[in-house]
Amino acid sequence: MANSDEKEELLRLIGAVGLGDTRAYRELYDRAAAKLFGVALRILRDRVIAEDVVQDAFVNIWNGAAGYNAALSAPMTWLITIVRNRCLDYLRRGDRAEVELDDELAATLTDERPGPEARLLVSEDAALLKVCLARLEAGQRQAIAFAYFQGLSHSELAHAMQVPIGTVKTWIRRGLSKLRECLAHTSASGV
After folding, report:
1. Is 114 within 8 Å of 47 (Cβ atoms)?
2. Angle, in degrees to the nearest 10, between helices 3-18 and 47-64
3. Taking 50 as the threshold, does the pLDDT of residue 154 lie above it?
4. Domain region containing 43
5. Which residue, 25, 52, 97, 164, has fewest beta-carbon neighbours within 10 Å?
6. Residue 136 maps to which CATH number?
7. Per residue in 157-191, pLDDT tens?
8. HSE-CB for 190 with a 13 A CA cutoff
9. One domain, residues 3 and 91
């Protein structure tokens, strides 16, 4: 399957999952699980833990698919970011203890998916972020995008962008500062 065809198919599947389509969820799992497992294994270096983290990530994907915004990231990037964040959450936990939920406790938990109002706010925030990102210099925008959406470290960015690591750090620091200013200004002025 061509790369753009794959992207379109993932977009379709994530949209259907956001509407609660379990068949699309299964198909999304079949298409993406192997790659996401590879990402988790690379970070965690433990096969069993990586499998568990990918399973947890797919729960997050099910719950978050309705809020996915294609304008912010490509579908595979979004999926990888969820897995990466679950891996980092796992690594940050000191005791690495897993909590087992019994059926009765699980039934009492509320639905964590955002409601329509929360999704609208996320959508508005995403639109503001897109406007502000477009106002950054190309190097700043690219460094921030790779750092936050692809999870690259400063040294990986420097290598990928073929610039000194100090330049990457400066671009990110100044770019984030400009983003904060822009977001504060645009949300205050309603632009």
Report:
1. no
2. 70
3. yes
4. 1-111
5. 97
6. 1.10.10.10
7. 888 788 899 998 999 899 888 988 888 887 666 55
8. 0
9. yes
